[in-house]
TrEMBL record:
One biological process term in Gene Ontology: DNA-templated transcription termination
Keywords: Transcription, Transcription regulation, Transcription termination, Transit peptide
Source species: Liquidambar formosana
Superkingdom per UniProt: Eukaryota
Family matches, as InterPro entries: MTERF, MTERF_sf
Name the UniProt record assigns to this protein: Uncharacterized protein
Similarity-based family: Belongs to the mTERF family.
Keyword Transcription on entry: yes
């Protein structure tokens, strides 16, 4: 069929299979090993697949999208059988073939859309029935739309497989505009059935999330409220239509006066685009159009992409999304540091100091202090005092680190008159000239 470099006879074979020349490059890029196979081996394999009931055009589209069915990397009876079981249900039993224009380009696009669901983790051999019942999505929506919608729900921090199944079970979601509409957070939650008592409690606990935001930011709004799991369960449970039915009415969504004043100041400043970009970052992680958002914004330094990297770093380390948003309102400057520095401080907190990430809920400013010149020497000095038996009181990390130098020295003098001399000579970063090194 095609072996090594395609010859003039490579576009057709004795069994009538014909792969378009303009698609062979894509197939070679996906799996070059196919072109080292003997033509008869490929022909026999294709004839075996054709026995499932597919015509040549459909089968070529399948092979272009799932090259491993030609390469033989997966044996029949395993993944390939599971794949063809799904495709047979979708294309033949549910008659998708009748809905698709019979050319290779169209079938390749259809199979690419099917591949999207497998890439999301949907198990081959288990979703053919669901795909068949929602077969219209493979004709009416582009691959880009499918990926876009799935990415929206994946931002709820749920399993990708669950997102794929949600789309297959509730395909009308694909018609919802999840980008441009505005939402009012409390109005949206009310639309989903929250009582006034519950709404009041949420407003008090999460003031930084209140106000208006874009529908595109809804997944992170829900994560900032710690309601993402509840929300996704509502969608899975049949209330997905509420997402499509929601209309921003302006109720409880009027622009916050203080927020508007802050917005006016931004637009009249020297760097409005830079500041608006940072504000959009904040909205993107769930902060609403409110005064607290503006107050927090003032303390954030760096570009929006740098702020996002630092935020993602803290998430990757293990800080809970909702807690991290609240921490930022208490100590915004934690986002003004290089991710590598943040990682080192958290590592020292958890491994050397024996604390946990939860301590950042109590003392988020820990991340604002210099690791080498403040955190390490003070902590190690207190450990030394305890080992000497001079300090019998357990001081909190905050009292060790956040205390001013003057008060710190006064405290350790009260613990032992000789302590300040030891601090300045062997622990403080203001090391004396006698060559005494810091304690490690």
């Amino acid at each position: 069929m095609f072996r090594n470099q395609p010859s003039r006879t490579a576009s057709r074979d004795s069994s009538g299979f014909g792969f378009p020349w303009n698609k062979l490059g894509r197939l070679y890029k996906e799996d070059p090993s196919i072109f080292s196979k003997h033509p008869k081996e490929l022909t026999d394999r294709l004839c075996e697949y054709k026995s499932y009931g597919f015509d040549n055009v459909t089968l070529i589209g399948i092979c272009l999208s799932f090259p491993y069915v030609l390469s033989g990397e997966c044996k029949l009876g395993g993944e390939i059988d599971a794949l063809f079981d799904d495709l047979k249900k979708l294309c033949i039993h549910f008659d998708l073939i009748r809905c698709v224009e019979g050319n290779v380009d169209t079938w390749y696009e259809v199979c690419r859309k099917i591949l999207v669901f497998y890439d999301m983790g949907c198990e081959k051999g288990m979703v053919g029935e669901l795909m068949g019942r929602s077969k219209h999505i493979f004709v009416e929506y582009s691959e880009e739309i499918l990926v876009q919608k799935m990415e929206f729900f994946c931002r709820l921090n749920v399993k990708k497989e669950e997102v794929g199944l949600l789309i297959l079970r509730s395909p009308e979601i694909l018609s919802f505009d999840l980008e441009t509409p505005m939402i009012s957070v409390l109005d949206f939650l009310k639309h989903f059935g929250f009582s006034m008592k519950k709404l009041k409690s949420i407003a008090q606990e999460y003031p930084h999330v209140m106000g208006r935001n874009k529908m595109a930011n809804l997944p992170h709004v829900m994560r900032a409220l710690d309601l993402h799991e509840w929300f996704f369960n509502e969608l899975k449970g049949g209330n997905h239509h509420l997402l499509g039915d929601y209309v921003f009415s302006g109720a409880d969504g009027a622009l916050d006066r203080d927020f508007k004043d802050g917005l006016d100041r931004i637009h009249s400043s020297r760097t409005p685009l830079h500041t608006i970009s940072k504000l959009n970052f904040m909205h993107g992680i769930g902060f609403g159009e409110n005064n607290l958002t503006m107050k927090t914004l003032v303390h954030l330094h760096g570009t929006s992409s740098e702020l996002q990297q630092r935020f993602d770093c803290l998430l990757r380390i293990g800080v809970d999304f909702s807690k991290l948003c609240r921490i930022i309102t208490l100590s915004p400057k934690i986002l003004n540091q290089n991710p590598r520095i943040i990682e080192r401080k958290v590592k020292f907190l958890c491994q050397d100091m024996g604390s946990s990430l939860e301590y950042l809920d109590v003392f988020p400013a820990f991340l604002n202090f210099d690791l080498e010149n403040r955190i390490k020497p003070r902590y190690r000095f207190h450990m030394w005092l305890s080992e000497k038996g001079w300090c019998t009181k357990n001081y909190s990390l905050a009292s060790m680190i956040a205390t001013s130098e003057k008060n710190f020295v006064g405290r350790i003098y009260g613990i032992h008159p000789a302590a300040p001399k030891q601090w300045f000579e062997c622990f403080s970063y203001k090391k004396s000239s006698n060559g005494c090194v810091k304690r490690h």
